[in-house]
Amino acid sequence: MSTLNIDFLEKEYPSIRENNIQGRWITFNDIKKLYTNLPDFIDKEEIGTSEQERPIYKLKLGKGEKKILVWSQMHGNESTGTKAVFDFLNFITNKFSHNTVQTILNETEIHIVPMLNPDGALAYTRVNAYGVDLNRDAVALQAKESKLLRIILEEVNPEFCFNLHDQRTIFGVEGTENPATISFLAPSEEETRKVTQGRIQTMNVIVAMNKLLQQIIPNHIGRYTDEFYPTATGDNFQKLGHNTILIEAGHFPDDYEREEVRKFNFYALLQGIFHISTNKMFNKYEEYFSIPNNIKNFYDVIYRSKNNKKDIAYQYAEQIESNKFALTLIKEKEGDLSSYLCHKEFNIND
Fold first, then answer.
1. 276 with 108: CB under 8 angstroms?
2. For 184, phi and psi rounded to 5 degrees?
3. Which of 36, 201, 216, 229 is geometrically suited to a Cys-Cys bond with 282, CB 3.0 to 4.6 A?
4. 251: which residues sit within 8 A by CB, 6+ positions away?
5. Phi and psi at residue 62, to the nearest 5°
6. pLDDT of 255-292, one tens digit each?
7. Closest by alpha carbon to 115, among 128, 105, 104, 132?
């Protein structure tokens, strides 16, 4: 199982990072201009519109037999994957003659929906304009956006999917004192969480991505719970035979804008696609279960008392104020919080 050269990626990343989008609040207008700048070998297609008639685009690149489908911002307020997607496109464009890029383009056909939920993105909400959580709409297909994604799934018939999300700052890596900066999941296909052949193949790709990231952010990678959700997108796509890799972008110290995390997200996406392009067998999966669990053990801020009995925990609420992304501290819990970690800590007198 080969991994990309992390030193090469670190050296090249500043030149391929898409600087026109940054921060947490990424809307359709932010990425609209990026579509027009894409090279001709990347096909651009408006596949439909959102509930409020905002365009939804799909990009296509590569001429290989292995079909891959990638989508981001099905939750409008989860934009790190979108930034990583455009970093990936810049890498493909700027390093077009590099062996890694040529291998990917020759072996795979990649379809990307960079922003599935533009209405939720503008409002900075998880749900769409009608309050539907697209990630829980895979069975009912109530939303236009969910129907579009299903149409694309059936047309492309991908062997692998990448479902890009963000997770809250409350998650840590079990057995460490580190936040879960990136978490992975090979979704279950039914309630018993059986390790099916499809899940084995999904886990195999995750093992490759984890190996790369461990070189640069060791012990900051978690494994998301594989509890089966009957209406979830990943679970249903996995059950339908499309191996679905969930990437959850989380917190990295002092990176609430997720500008460092976007880089790690890009590295994971690139490694995953490269691994698919260079392998025919995806059977080795056991190391997937060596990735520590993703657990809820963090607060953003804790004020510690001397005896811990009067600790106070706060969490940032994310919102749009005066047309700008803003963080507001909200009190969450009081008492003995000695079992919890935090991203910022202060001492108080009892």
1. yes
2. -120, 160
3. 201
4. 169, 171, 179, 180, 181, 258, 261, 298, 343
5. 95, 155
6. 999 999 999 999 999 999 999 999 999 999 999 999 99
7. 128
pLDDT at 334 over 70: yes
Through-space distance between the first and last CA atoms of the chain, rounded to whole angstroms: 54
Three-state DSSP state, 291: coil
Structure tokens at 29: 């207008």
- Show the tokens assigned to 264: 């790690």
Please state, in angstroms and rounded to a whole number, the distance separating the CA atoms of residues 182 and 180. 6
Whether residue 350 is predicted with pLDDT greater than 70 in this model: the reply is no
pTM of the model: 0.97
Which helix (H) or strand (E) is 304 found in, with range?
Answer: strand 298-304
Kindly report, residue by residue over 156-192, the tens digit of the pLDDT: 999 999 999 999 999 999 999 999 999 999 999 999 9
CATH code that applies to domain 6-296 = 3.40.630.10
Coil/strand/helix, residue 159: coil
DSSP string, 22-56: -SS---HHHHHHHHHTS-TTSEEEEEEE-TT--EE
The secondary structure of residue 292, as a DSSP letter, is P
Confidence of residue 308 (pLDDT cuts 50, 70, 90): confident
pLDDT of residue 66: 98
Q: What's the rounded Cα separation, in Å, for the pair 38 and 18?
A: 12
